[in-house]
Amino acid sequence: MSIETSSNNIKNYLSRNETSAQDKLEFKKCAFNLCSQFLAGPWKNRPIEDFEINEIKGGMSNILFLCELKLNRNQYCQGCPNRVLMRVYFNPQSEEHLVSESVIFTLLSERRLGPKLYGIFNGGRLEEFIPSRPLSCEELSISSISMKIAKRVAAIHKLDVPIPKEPHYIMDVLRRWLMQLKSQGKKSYTLQNQYKESTPTLLTMDTLEAELQTLEKCLAKSKSLVTFCHNDLQEGNILLLKQRLSNIRVASKDDENFEDKEVDEITEGFMNPRLVIIDFEYASYNYRGFDFANHFIEYTMDYDVKKAPYFCIKSKQFPSDTHMIEFFKAYLKEMNVPLAKSMTEATILLDETLPFIPVSHLFWGIWGLLQVELSPINFGFLEYGLERLALYFLHKDKLLKLLDEELE
């Protein structure tokens, strides 16, 4: 069976959400074939009975599987893992951006800022399995964790990545997503009642088109620095490491006893958290204010909810200005900004960030509506999309201030 056939069968199986024993066996055979062809070694010579695959909790636009080959101690070969992560995408990205994401993932792997890449197939990839757990939204605000995240974000923003450098990603993606929504025959939605004073009752495609035109005018006035950005710094994409890794360098340059080497011990305490940022599927060059605003909004987004719609928005958990300033100071320290200038620069960063709060809500709101049509993941995408769009209108005044500043 070819790689192309296996990858197509996997996506078709997941899209149908089949549960019969025969379908599950065919899915397992396709996954095993992908692992065998990309990993070779003992994977190539072992029977499928030695192979296990289990779905694990992942992101909101991809499905994750832990693929494991059961081997005896004397059957392991150096440089060949017996466990890998298979990531299957259902995000509405263009082919051009999927190529960019492969470039980004490979670069981060080579620089030991992300997991190893073992293989790329149509609609997904095989990557190093990182023994870890994702943070919770409440943990994002813990000071020691927040300061470490700030350093990781600085490391990302300093990267020079061989992809287009202009900050067109937000507008390009939103226009494409809106076009896809229109092609699905969608005409209108009713927004949440709790925001009725600031939001239209009926949301149409024409309304969204008008908001994109407003957004484009505002972004043209933004003074936020353009850097390489993650664009999706939510709790599920920030991992707390549990044990030694083969590829990840987790220390910052000013961490105590920093050396450019592997993790030497198991560390899961909050006093010195070892964090890795993953899943760069939405990464691009962008206004850094978007990266910051999007991350701070995630303090309020709880995706670890067991019943429908499988999320909860806790608006009171949005960080204070004081917390954000401390985050920015840690970020600037990693950027080598002198301490004497850090408070002034941190205040500038705060001003850069606030207009992008509604931008994040608009971005993920439209994304949520499109996921209703495309994703097999069991999540309340419709409720999520409408809630985020209602929050966009609630905070839209922050974005419009960019136009007001131009008039002053």
Question: Keywords, please?
Answer:
alpha+beta, Phosphorylase Kinase, domain 1, Aminoglycoside 3'-phosphotransferase, Chain: A, domain 2, 2 domains, five-stranded antiparallel β-sheet, three-stranded antiparallel β-sheet
By CATH, the architecture of the largest domain is named Alpha-Beta Complex
CATH class of the largest domain: Alpha Beta
Percent of residues in beta strands: 5-15%
Percent of residues in helical segments?
Answer: 40-55%
Mean pLDDT across every amino acid position: 87
Low-confidence spans: pLDDT under 50, at least 5 residues? 249-268
- CATH overall fold name of the largest domain: Aminoglycoside 3'-phosphotransferase, Chain: A, domain 2
Q: State the distance separating the first and last CA atoms.
A: 65 Å
Total number of domains:
2
| Count of extended strands | 14
Using the alpha-carbon principal axes, give the shape: globular
Strand order of the largest sheet: 1-2-3-5-4
Rg over CA atoms, rounded to whole Å, is 22 Å
Secondary structure class reads: alpha+beta
Write out the CATH superfamily name of the largest domain: Aminoglycoside phosphotransferase (APH), C-terminal lobe
Order of helices and strands: HHHEEEHEEEHHEEHEEEEHEEHHHH
